[in-house]
Design a protein that fits this description.
The protein is of the alpha/beta class. The chain folds into two domains: about 35 residues; about 100 residues, Immunoglobulins (Immunoglobulin-like, Sandwich). It is about 25% helix and about 30% strand. Strand 3 and strand 4 form a beta hairpin.
Length: about 140
């Protein structure tokens, strides 16, 4: 026949459960601290936007030129993990998990970028700067 459960046995059992919970929380916190994010940022210039200089383009047309060329972030195996549209004034900024990525734009017709595709390594808590110049091929 089993022995009756005493208050002391319950206390020891609860103390063990609480200790295990605290240890698991500490371990979990340590693991999460190392799995943060880094930042990819940069300025983007696109041009020419007119076949003849001087070029006067409305702000809406300028924003549309940037929107037509989103920046894609992929794994080295080719899986797209994110896409970001640069702003004509502020460029782009995106938080990424630490790792190696291939940065590129959608290629359309003539033109392109000498900087892309680019392979970058993002590290936890660090900022990687990649400025991009896109030649539209317009002449």
């Amino acid at each position: 026949m089993p022995e009756p459960v005493t208050g002391r046995a319950v206390f020891i059992f609860m103390l063990g459960i609480m200790s295990l919970t605290v240890v698991m929380a500490l371990i979990s916190g340590c693991i999460q601290a190392g799995s943060g994010t880094g930042t990819l940022t940069g300025n983007v210039s696109i041009g020419p936007l007119c076949p003849v200089e001087p070029c006067t383009v409305s702000h809406d047309r300028l924003v549309a030129a940037y929107a037509a060329r989103p920046i894609t972030i992929s794994t080295p195996a080719g899986m797209v993990v994110a896409s970001v549209t640069a702003d004509p004034e502020t460029g782009y900024t995106i938080a990424l998990k630490p790792g190696t990525y291939v940065i590129d734009i959608r290629h359309q017709g003539i033109g392109g970028s000498r900087e892309l595709p680019a392979t970058v390594t993002i590290r936890d808590g660090e900022t990687y700067r990649l400025d991009i110049s896109i030649d539209t091929g317009m002449r």
